[in-house]
Amino acid sequence: MKFRKILMSVFATFLAVTGVTPCGASTSGGAQASTLEQNKSLARRVYEEGLNQGRFDVPYTADFVGHGGPRTFTHAQGMAEARGWRDAFPDLNMRIDLLIAEDDMVAVRWTATGTNTGTGNGIPATGRSVETHGTTMFRMADGRIAEEWTCANSLGLMRQLGMLPAPAPASGSAAKGGSR
Q1: Could you tell me if residue 179 is inside a domain?
Q2: 157 Cβ partners below 8 Å, 6+ apart?
Q3: Residue 121: in which H helix or E strand, if any?
Q4: Domain of 80?
């Protein structure tokens, strides 16, 4: 029994040092490492190929559901919106700041920059440059995107475009440190 414990300890140390995962072994949560990497690669394609280059051929499931704020949307509606962003911001650049995968989920923290020289998604051309941030969660199924949740700073974007007034400065004694 003692020999078995020593052997298992040596084996675990070898795995930790080399990073090798034995065939059939899985990462936390039960997803295989290769599947996690495939899911992360698929999420990267949404930004690098689709939004940055306008090549919208990332695979989605037939029953895809997108969630954006209080509404849901279909794949066709999501693609129309993505093309609208490319039309409004021809130099759109989506940078992935953080990418995390676990089980069938991939989380992406992103930064978008661009100059609004076109029209799209109801936004008239303003000529203004913008930077905004957001987070998207994807659920993958069989090598395709099955579901998406996106949360972005839309209010900040509209302010940068001059479509909303800047917030009023705080007033009163409480904003200046106040008196007690």
Answers
A1: no
A2: 130, 132
A3: none
A4: 30-160
Nearest to 96 by CA among 64, 135, 53, 143: 135
Q: pLDDT for 124-150, tens place per residue?
A: 999 999 999 999 999 999 999 999 999
For the chain, how many structural domains are there in total? 1
Residue 43 placed within a domain: yes
157 in Cβ contact with 130 (< 8 Å): yes
Helix or strand run (H / E) with residue 158? helix 154-160
pTM: 0.74
172 inside domain: no
Residues 46-55, mean pLDDT to the nearest whole number: 95
CATH for 49: 3.10.450.50
Query: Cα–Cα–Cα angle for 82, 87, 89, nearest 5°?
Result: 95
Select the more confidently predicted residue: 22 or 136: 136
CB 175, CB 74: distance < 8 Å = no
Q: What is the pLDDT of residue 176?
A: 55
Does residue 97 form part of some domain? yes
Distance in angstroms (rounded) separating the CA atoms of residues 84 and 56: 12
